[in-house]
Amino acid sequence: MDYKAADGLQDLQYFGEYGGVNPSISDSSTYTFLSAKTMFDTFEGNTEGCYLYSRHSSPSNLYLGEALAALEGTETANVTASGMGAITAVILQICSAGDHLVCSRTIYGGTYAFLKNFLKKFEVATTFVDITDLDAVAGAINPRTKMIYCESVSNPLLEIADIKALSHLSKKHAIPLVVDNTFSPLSIAPAKLGADIVVHSLTKFINGSSDCVAGAVCGSKEFCLGLKDVNQGAGMLLGSTLDSLRAASILKNMRTLHIRVKKHSENALYLAKDFEKEGLRVMYPGLRSHPGHRIMERQMNKEYGFGGIMTLDVGGVNRANALMERMQKEDLGYLAVSLGFYKTLFSAPGTSTSSEIPLEEQKSMGLTDGLIRFSIGLDNDIHRTCERMKDCMTKLGILGG
Ligand SMILES: *Cc1c(COP(=O)(O)O)cnc(C)c1O
């Protein structure tokens, strides 16, 4: 990989209006114009350098967008009030009634529910496929197909999408490849592998402090400006706008992203290797036993590792619940959804974040009810954490002993 995402981020320097090392936070919903003509031009779409109204854009949101574009290596990026705000705007911008999408069957539960249930109202249909089966993806594309949608590392099963191969396919059919890179910022740079649009839930690793909800769309200037268009833009018209105060705090948290990602990855790899040695059913892209290991290795930025998410199948919902409750009691982390926090977070996707997916379909994709998803924290002494986690498992009879 020659693309050094952290370098792009690191090189960004901001000067506040009084010379502060952090840019001033924009505290206005509306902006003055010196001439009425400029206001007219701005409404006509000639918005370069002009602020109009903060649902359209604001200085703080543009600063954060610039950092995200540097992260993903895209021309530009728009920030949104949530990851779902980014995902739904992108899909509605590209698809009209009668259109069709091809989508990975293992994706974030909210995205799945939006495509499967909500878009019925607009007669937009989705074919869900095993994204690692390229023939299945190709076979699902029809003349009304408007995009291929997937996650670089899928939620919650950690399937790895072969972004280069999917991009070849999408280019052959002249449709965009849209990749949700929430699980693998810095580790994977989808746009550099051929994705046309990269979406993020900033709520997770990128912000990393579990104190807000936000999202982003990274792509070409043409597409991102289109999303902001006052007459036609799904971003502008659906109104999922991030507040400036939040944009400023996320930008500050992003400055430690490279350090955090490395630590999350290092800790997750340590636990995954140890748990595997113990004979536990652990899934982690950094393990050779993981079906997507080779593809991940080929497309990752090695220095950031295989990411902070790991799953463990303890063989039943009751055992999963007992283990999570026990670990929480032992201060090993929180029984909570979401990812990217400094403490480990764990939840059972079958009964939480993926509960939108019908049981039958969960079964067919390999999502068992004993599966626990871990977002591994920034623990300083992961050996100690590992021993304490195994202690919980031994006490519950999950580990023989
Ligand atoms: C959390 C998440 C989302 C949704 O993001 P919000 O910020 O909660 O709206 C989308 N995709 C993935 C992979 C996620 O983990």
UniProtKB/TrEMBL annotation:
Molecular function per GO: carbon-sulfur lyase activity; pyridoxal phosphate binding; transaminase activity
GO cellular component terms, A-Z: cytoplasm
Pfam families: Cys_Met_Meta_PP
Keywords: Aminotransferase, Pyridoxal phosphate, Transferase
PTM annotation (N6-(pyridoxal phosphate)lysine): residues: 204
Cofactor(s) this protein cannot do without: pyridoxal 5'-phosphate
Keyword match Cytoplasm: no
Single biological process term from Gene Ontology: transsulfuration
Annotated family: Belongs to the trans-sulfuration enzymes family.
Name of this protein: Aminotransferase class I/II-fold pyridoxal phosphate-dependent enzyme
Organism annotation: Cerina litoralis
